[in-house]
Amino acid sequence: MVEKAYKFRFYPTPEQENLLRRTLGCVRLIYNKALAARTQAWYEKQERVGYKQTSAMLTSWKKQEDLDFLTEVSSVPLQQSLRHLQTAFTNFFSGRAKYPNFKKKRNGGSAEFSRSAFKWKDGQVYLAKCSEPLPIRWSRQLPPGCSPTIITVKLEPSGRWSVSLRFNDPRDLKLKPIKKQIGVDVGISSLIATSDGTKVNNPKYFNQLYKKLRLAQKSLSRKTKGSNNYQKARLKVARIHAKIKDSRLDYTHQLTTQLIRENQTIVVEDLAVKNMVKNHKLARAISDANWGELVRQLEYKAEWYGRELIKIDRYFPSSKRCSNCGYVVDKLPLHIREGTVLNVQLTTIETSTQV
User: Fold this and answer.
1) pTM of the entire structure?
2) What is the distance between the alpha carbons of residues 118 and 87, in angstroms, rounded to a whole number?
């Protein structure tokens, strides 16, 4: 059994949008108040405040007159926000993430509903305190016999509403085994280069809309912050970013699905993308190539469809090593594509970062 999530667009009615926006505002408020309380307790008293203490704080906040609006929305998303904050602190103390940040209204927001806060009836979703089902655009249906366990409603900075349905899929999706194996090296001029000599071009969606985005950001900088014209310009910038993101994600899904279907074993390099984007000259190009998402998709799709994904150690000199004799060169600048070592032709998989 595999846990999956299907994401859909939906277009709420005015009443639903009003309730959902108030829910997102309450979720953001509770998260920020709990974060402030935990931070203050540590700096003033050197005390660590956990989920149980913040949950008790939520009960007391609901009793305050100036926060009585918290009772007008479902209590489940508020509790879930505290659990998410606890997870953020757990990741921080484990060294996997930075210190949690305060949530901002301009970034949209999300609210998570567990089974007690929604109803799944006749293939429709009824959220708590909503009498009508969410008007979801069903691009695909859930597998037969499956029902969502957790529903997440999200408002993107571009103003789009989406809902994610998480469920357990009991189907066996493993593909028929094949003998083909392949090595994949990611790049920028070519998005990937495979061991059989195939190169896939990088569409560079950011560059395609760069001029349009630059003009929109320029227009936004001229607006008075907080004005109606500022909000309109901000939405225009956000929609361009959303278009770039959607195109990039769709292309990555198509590419990874093709690799999984055509190969039994896929070998990739375990790149430290977070460290690589610290290079300000290459950060934009690396981010647009979507390397991290590509490897992540290969990883979970290989598990779904019965394929094998092997990650090579990031310190292994794969690009500097000759595929014929095994010789390793001392230096290999980015502009070098081919080289000759000891009269043996050394061909390196394309790693050029020319954009």
Assistant:
1) 0.85
2) 23
CB 226 within 8 A of CB 233: no
How do residues 303-329 score in pLDDT, each as one tens digit? Answer: 999 999 999 887 777 667 776 777 787
Residues for the chain: how many in total?
355
CB atoms within 10 A of CB 96: 8
| C-alpha distances out from residue 96 to 64, 87, 90, 203, 314, Å | 36, 11, 9, 31, 18
What does the block give as tokens for 270? 């375990």
Rounded Cα distance, 278 and 281, in Å: 9
- Cβ-contact 299, 309 below 8 angstroms: yes
Cβ neighbors of 307 (< 8 A, separation 6 or more) are 175, 260, 263, 264, 265, 266, 301
89, 92, 96, 284 from 38: Cα distances, Å: 10, 13, 19, 35
β-sheet bridge partners, residue 127: 118
